[in-house]
């Protein structure tokens, strides 16, 4: 089905070769699509050290308030590139009274003041709008959402934390070493009943655990591309985020050209393909004809099986999920084995939604499967969220909406909520099947601290529809006899023209920002001092810690515009004691800054020197240890909430994603790493003293000696690393955060 090759390969004459006469790997890598696009957007003059300026930016209503507040505080006067503000995450959260709509009103006022594009609630999900109106062959787009991926449309797109968008708004750059490029070579034709999520889940399963494509660019090519409709390509592409790759790009063809023509943007199409002799650092082969319907079990898209494997081994697989859930959530009582009965495995809910599931082709084929049938009158429900109003309108015109409604399915507005716990929260011990992007812990909206548990399995819309046809009995779409009909799509741009605000190039400084009572400025943050002392406020030993665990999604998203209130939720579903510990540390630091000498702090420092003299030049903050933090969302709040609570460091063996490490740096959190061979037996309450940290960062020192002061009073040596900082990143850390960095230079 999928084969990984951990070696370089040339693409020449439409075939894969180990070598090509007259072309070295160094020359060949300059013949990839990725090289051309990245170098064309870099202003560094150094092909190995990229400094990227993007063509456009896009954010949703969880992130854009904070981004604009950061940029405004740093001197922004207008948006220098097209910047779209979509309202697809907080549009249905009925939490906190007026605060969600207050954010939307703020967004419209900001679009008018600074010259932005405003997409009102329920008009489109963020990535649908970007595909429809912003993508272009050879362009680059930066979004404050991890699933910012438009490679199938010839656009290299990147999901990053909010500070990276603030940098672009301030005409700065996105900096990184030139990444390795991985070829994804597609052959064959998918069978009837196999959809994009099946291919995507299989790809995530094959690559995630080993980190095969981590922080690399995926370049899709091969004869199999031509067999895929554009929605199929988009559906695979958006899920490449779950492989932890950096970005993606696909060859473009007549199918791509037709997409731009349909969306009335023919000028944004151009042919893209690797040059003959292109070289890739490694490659992946996918034979589309062998891909089977897939199911990803909790708690990650890589925990995947074919549906038939799952059906044959359901008892063992669900028992393993239950055991994992009990370990994670001691207060919950997971009961999934009771889903096995009457000769099958039964789900309680089906959801087709968002940037991955709510696409036109997915929904029309789901309608083909269900047409004339019924979802049943039992516990099972099926909810369908078209990805934009134009898609919903076309589904209505061709009768797909009516066909689904006639079966008992419910059609809902464009909304990202089911993907992150703000819509369709299942019942306790419910099992939900979703064509959405993630099934991380609690991402469906449950609260394990209150004894709740629910599980999400990712499946393609086709198999969800087949399951619905059988009343909730999990069924592969390849096991259903139906005839899919591929229907042409017609895009109604006039719907957007009647409702959206297009303000790029029309900034009006006289417009006042509308600030609801929950929209607050960031608290003052201190620059890095000579020495650093941090107390471990959370020690997380899971193999990977997601951003959803660092700052929960769902109802907490309503507080994204209020840093202090949101920070109260930090690690609340993973380590509830963290906030209290961090606040206690911050209180001691506040005393120190006020000129007092907290006895506890002095006693700790006495273990490594003269505590009284060290107090004046040693910053005291909290720290999170995790084996591999930051998989998942681009949301900056996973880092900023730690900083608001007085966090000054993360210690880990590796960061799961570049974007989370960037978020830490941009908020002045030291991104410490350990050698894999280094034991870390320490627990919450132990402290780490890093002498001379300011001088070390300024000098670019990467190996940094530290002392661990344990609760029992013993002191042990520890070597920390801070590797690969750019000159700007050093200055940001020294200044205390990105906002301080800009404010200092504006004075």
Task: Offer a quick outline of the entry.
The protein is an alpha/beta fold and 747 residues long.
Describe this structure in words.
This protein is 32% helix and 20% strand. With 747 residues, the protein is α/β, with parallel strands linked by helices. It has four domains: 1-27 and 179-188 and 214-288, 3-Layer(aba) Sandwich (Aconitase, Domain 2); 32-171, 2-Layer Sandwich (Aconitase, domain 3); 294-494, 2-Layer Sandwich (Aconitase, domain 3); 531-746, Aconitase, domain 4 (Alpha-Beta Barrel). The strands form nine sheets. Strands 31-30-28-26-32-33-34 form a seven-stranded mixed β-sheet, sandwiched between helices. A six-stranded mixed β-sheet has the order 9-8-5-6-7-25, sandwiched between helices. The protein is globular and about 80 Å long.
């Amino acid at each position: 089905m999928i084969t990984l090759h951990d070696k370089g390969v040339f693409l020449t004459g439409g075939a894969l070769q180990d070598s090509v006469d007259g072309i070295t790997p160094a020359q060949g890598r300059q013949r990839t699509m990725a090289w051309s696009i990245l170098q064309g957007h870099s202003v560094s003059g150094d092909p190995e050290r990229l400094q990227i300026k993007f063509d456009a930016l896009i954010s949703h209503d969880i992130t854009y308030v904070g981004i604009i507040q950061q940029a405004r505080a740093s001197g922004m006067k207008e948006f220098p590139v097209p910047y779209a503000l979509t309202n697809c995450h907080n549009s249905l959260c009925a939490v906190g009274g007026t605060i969600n709509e207050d954010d939307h009103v703020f967004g419209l006022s900001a679009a008018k003041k600074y010259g932005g594009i405003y997409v009102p609630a329920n008009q489109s999900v963020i990535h649908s709008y970007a595909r429809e109106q912003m993508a272009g062959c050879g362009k680059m787009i930066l979004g404050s959402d991890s699933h910012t991926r438009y490679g199938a449309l010839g656009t290299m797109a990147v999901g990053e934390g909010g500070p990276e968008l603030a940098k672009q708004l301030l005409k700065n750059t996105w900096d990184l070493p030139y990444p390795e490029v991985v070829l994804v070579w597609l052959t064959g034709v998918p069978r009837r009943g196999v959809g994009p999520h099946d291919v995507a889940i299989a790809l995530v399963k094959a690559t995630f655990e080993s980190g095969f494509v981590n922080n690399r660019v995926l370049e899709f090519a091969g004869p199999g591309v031509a067999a895929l409709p554009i929605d199929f390509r988009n559906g695979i592409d958006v899920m490449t985020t779950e492989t932890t790759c950096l970005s993606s790009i696909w060859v473009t063809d007549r199918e791509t050209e037709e997409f731009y023509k349909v969306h009335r943007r023919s000028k944004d199409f151009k042919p893209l393909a690797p040059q003959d002799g292109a070289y890739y650092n490694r490659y992946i082969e996918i034979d589309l004809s062998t891909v089977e319907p897939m199911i990803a079990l909790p708690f990650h898209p890589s925990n995947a099986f074919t549906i038939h494997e799952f059906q044959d081994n359901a008892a063992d697989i669900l028992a393993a999920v239950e055991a994992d859930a009990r370990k994670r959530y001691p207060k919950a009582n997971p009961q999934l084995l009771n889903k096995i009965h009457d000769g099958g495995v039964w789900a309680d809910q089906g959801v087709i939604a968002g940037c991955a599931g709510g696409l036109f082709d997915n929904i029309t084929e789901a309608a083909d499967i269900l047409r004339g049938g019924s979802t049943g009158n039992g516990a099972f429900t099926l909810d369908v969220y078209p990805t934009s109003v134009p898609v919903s309108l076309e589904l209505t015109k061709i009768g797909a909406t009516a066909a689904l409604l006639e079966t008992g399915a419910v059609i809902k507005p464009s909304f990202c909520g089911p993907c992150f716990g703000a819509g369709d929260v299942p019942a306790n011990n419910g099992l939900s099947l979703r064509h959405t992007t993630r099934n991380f812990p609690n991402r469906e909206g449950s609260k394990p601290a209150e004894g709740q548990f629910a599980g999400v399995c990712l499946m393609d819309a086709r198999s969800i529809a087949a399951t619905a046809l059988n009343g909730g009995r999990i069924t592969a779409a390849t096991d259903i006899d139906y005839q899919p009909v591929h229907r042409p799509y017609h895009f109604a741009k006039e719907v957007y023209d009647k409702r959206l605000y297009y303000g790029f190039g029309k900034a009006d400084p006289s417009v006042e920002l509308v600030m609801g009572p929950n929209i607050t400025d960031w608290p003052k943050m201190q620059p890095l001092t000579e020495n650093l002392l941090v107390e471990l406020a959370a020690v997380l030993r899971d193999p990977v810690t997601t951003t959803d665990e660092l700052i929960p999604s769902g109802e907490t998203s309503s507080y994204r515009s209020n840093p202090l209130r949101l920070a109260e939720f930090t690690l609340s579903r993973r380590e509830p004691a963290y906030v209290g510990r961090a606040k206690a540390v911050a209180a001691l630091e506040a005393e120190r800054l006020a000129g007092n000498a907290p006895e506890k702090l002095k006693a700790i420092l006495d273990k490594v020197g003269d505590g009284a003299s060290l107090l004046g030049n040693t910053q005291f903050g909290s720290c999170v240890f995790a084996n591999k933090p930051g998989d998942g969302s681009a949301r900056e709040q996973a880092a900023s909430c730690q900083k608001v609570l007085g966090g000054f460091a993360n210690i880990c063996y590796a960061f799961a994603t570049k974007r989370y490490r960037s978020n830490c740096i941009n908020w002045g959190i030291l991104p410490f790493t350990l050698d894999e061979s280094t034991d870390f037996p320490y627990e919450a309450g132990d402290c780490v003293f890093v002498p001379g940290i300011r001088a070390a960062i300024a000098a670019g020192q990467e190996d940094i000696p530290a002392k661990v002061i344990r609760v029992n009073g013993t002191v042990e040596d520890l070597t920390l690393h801070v590797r690969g900082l750019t000159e700007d990143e050093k200055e940001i850390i020294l200044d205390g955060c990105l906002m301080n960095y800009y404010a200092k230079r504006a004075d």
